[in-house]
Amino acid sequence: MVEQVPFADIDKVFAHTTNLANCNLNSKVLATSDEWFAEASNLLTPTPAISRPGVFVHTGAWYDGWETRRHNPQSYDWVVIKLGATGVIQGVEVDTAHFKGNYGEKAELWATYAPNGSDAELSDPSYSGWKTVLPIVPCGPSQRQAWKTPHEANSTPYTHVRLHMYPDGGFARLRLYGHAIAPPAPANQAAPIEELSSALFGGIVLSASDQHYTPASNIILPGRGKNMGDGWETARSRGANHVDWAIAKLGLPGTVAQVIVDTKDFRGNFPRAVSVHGILAGTGDNVPSADSPAWVEILKGDKPTKADTEHIFEGADLAAGREDTRVFSHVKLTLVPDGGVKRFRIMGRRA
User: Please, which residues have CB within 8 angstroms of residue 277's CB and are 6 or more apart in sequence?
Assistant: First the structure.
């Protein structure tokens, strides 16, 4: 059995997860039965669906989602998605935003673990390695609907999913709440420098002081992004001594050799300075508060920042004066006083 999550509770219930079905996490569509009216790749767009009433393209009305033809002769339409990272799925959301007279009436989700499977193999309708993560559930028009997955599903790693839409119609977004699983450490060699905070390795942003413009979860995504919209930006502060902060749980607890704070695309709205603190593994809460006494300096004091720049702090910039060999489990990035950053990376060696 799956448990449906009330609409008002979706964001709260899955607050400490990552949406694995996100094109910014390198997830991509491999194949689909039909995408006549709107492309299935729209399902993976990280931002909410938008509406453009009265806008028409060659195939019909423009929709921000996946929409198939009418009168499907099969029981359902389908789309196969390759996740950007192997991960566990704790919840599934099917969002039918703006699909009213043309929404898919039911949804079903299958998943598989096939790290060595070819795209052609997983795209083939005859592939038999799928397991049901979400059984057939009803969907309503223009609304978010989400379900917690059974224990077996939320503790099993998956690499691909197959979404079914009964019998045809449109879905705006698919969101798969969970976390990525880091690849195993290289065997028989010294631990290399890795991005311990990356969402691809299971890093999760747990909380933030302010997410007025864009979510703090963007700062641990791979790459440098496209524009300000895929970074983290807070509201303008007016009070004295104001700071904003974001707290992340490292996907891989470990030492710290380098801290990267990237302000790419933030030119008139970057922070004046940043500071970085950490919590040593085993010394704090799993979801620490911003004022927890367990926080210790990783960077030595506040570090000035510049517009549209990838700042790399290492060596004497670190509180340890060199690679910090203590093992950290959580980190906190503080913006002085506010503003926006694109990416925040903790580079080190897994414990």
Answer: 295, 296, 297, 298, 331, 332, 334
Other CB atoms closer than 10 Å to residue 288's CB: what's the count? Answer: 20
Residues 6+ apart with CB under 8 A from 82: 27, 28, 29, 30, 119, 122, 159, 160
Per-residue tokens: 188: 């028989």
Give the pLDDT of residue 153.
74
Cα 15 to Cα 216: distance, rounded to the nearest angstrom: 12
C-alpha–C-alpha distance, residues 180 and 45, integer Å: 18
Sort residue 172 into left (φ over 0), alpha (ψ -120 to 50) or beta.
alpha
Largest interatomic CA distance in the chain: 67
pTM: 0.95
DSSP 17: S
pLDDT in tens, 57-68: 999 999 999 999
Label residue 258 left, alpha or beta by phi (over 0 means left) and psi (-120 to 50 means alpha). beta
Residues sharing a CB contact under 8 Å with residue 306, sequence separation 6 or more, in sequence order = 263, 270
Measure CA 200 to chain center: 9
Q: In this structure, is the dihedral angle defined by the CA atoms of residues 314, 316, 318 and 323, taken in order, positive or negative? A: positive
Q: Which domains does the chain have, with CATH numbers?
A: 3-180 (2.60.120.260), 194-350 (2.60.120.260)
What is the percentage of the chain residues whose pLDDT exceeds 70? 100
How far apart (Å, rounded) are the C-alpha atoms in residues 200 and 198?
5
Render the burial of 50-74: b for 16+ CB within 10 Å, e for the rest: eeeeeeeeeeeebbbbbbbeeebee
Alpha carbon distance 31, 46 (integer Å): 20
Candidates 14, 5, 13, 39; CA nearest to 173 is 39
Burial per residue of 306-321, b for 16 or more beta-carbon CB atoms within 10 angstroms, e otherwise: eeeeebebeeebbbee
Task: Collect all residues with Cβ–Cβ distance below 8 Å to 223 and sequence separation of at least 6.
Answer: 24
pLDDT digits (tens, 9 = 90+) for 238-293: 999 999 999 999 999 999 999 999 999 999 999 999 999 999 999 878 999 999 99
